[in-house]
UniProtKB/TrEMBL annotation:
EC number: 2.9.1.1
Gene3D superfamilies documented for this protein: 3.90.1150.180, Type I PLP-dependent aspartate aminotransferase-like (Major domain) (3.40.640.10)
Listed name of the protein: L-seryl-tRNA(Sec) selenium transferase
Gene: selA
Cofactor dependence: pyridoxal 5'-phosphate
GO molecular function, a single term: L-seryl-tRNA(Sec) selenium transferase activity
Amino acid sequence: MEELRLLPSVHAVLQQNDWEGGEKGIPASVIKKWVQEELDVLRLSLMNGSYKEGWERKRFLAAVSAGVRKKMEINGAYTLKKVVNATGVVLHTNLGRARLSSAAVAHVLEAASSYTNLEYSLEQGTRGSRHDIIENQICDITGCEAAMVVNNNAAAVYMVLSALAKQKKVIVSRGELVEIGGSFRISSIMEESGAILKEVGTTNRTHLHDYASAIDEETAILMKVHTSNFKITGFTKTVFSQELLALKEQHPELIVYEDLGSGSLFPFARYGIGEEPEIKRSIAAGLDLISFSGDKLIGGPQAGIIAGKSKWINQLKKHQLARVLRVDKLTLAALEATLLSYHQEEAAREIPVIRDIIRAEEEIRVQAERIKEKLESVYECHIRKGHSMVGGGTMAAVVLPTYIIEVTHPAFSAPELSRRLREQSVPVIVTVKNDCCHIDPRTVDEADEAALLSAFFSL
């Protein structure tokens, strides 16, 4: 085809434009790859007859260059990038779950840009343990004897079972063998650990005598799993972890371990939000071990926190998995700063996850009106009452009252508008429902609001 001979070479495109290595620090090799991709797209459109702009080398050169510049604008140098979460889902797993507090961000920046005493005792002038960085903080906040941190809560479960119950039985209610997302199941993690899973009871009803009758000389752990990502109602019966402690009195060699999953150090129930068990109460009840996530209701970085009796925590620290699953200085810095906020409830309220969950309905309404007023010069907007979700497999039965802005554009369908918003330099993630794009301001702070408006007016 004659027109194919008019296509510019990669070198010609690169020479024609002053890419400056990409103003956003994009490597030259990436820009070259994008040029090749745009040329391939143009070549295909010429071959199938869909290109209608005229067959001129200058025009082809401009088309390829424009496509590359669009990629530069949308993609930037990084794949991981900031997005505006306008869905109202506070702990949106796909969007990175918890946003860190300003104090946590500052502490991470300091740790990242400096040498630290990660494994160095300033008091002794000798090698120290990274467990010491965070252990006292966790103990002070939860009331536990000892604690350690691994890279997520699934790792915490795996480590507890592998280190303390390998080739031994772990008794757990059949109704608590949850799937935690991404097709990963607690039962599968337990089996991978080398522990022998012993299910008792039924999906909806488990009694204390089910646990008692399953105990034998091969039993190591009585396990309780908090079912935070679903709720069974109706004809149900569950055994509380405190009840399992009564069995321990008859079998003192057993470990009573509760996987709290989300974990909570904030009294949400006092704000009329859910019935999430508080970590402090589980520790005060006398459980041997508990584990919970750092990046869910705690509002910190991804981490799995194991807390409880010194006897068991010390064994875990000495296990080979402690090195395999350990966290780095940035995680410890973020977690330390986050936990410090829990010494005062007022400070804890400033942790973004806490702040967004307990936001007043009226405050959200005022913000929704403000956004609507700015958008309606171009878009058709309506505000209605709705509800937000906590997300992250947490507080599944809880709905948070909010105000939703329904947005439509005269030229774009809702899916098309959503796609264009995702293609902005700061992508905006909305919910598409009933032929509208829905904005829930609950998860849109002041800086996000400016980026959201910029995205809508840049289409």
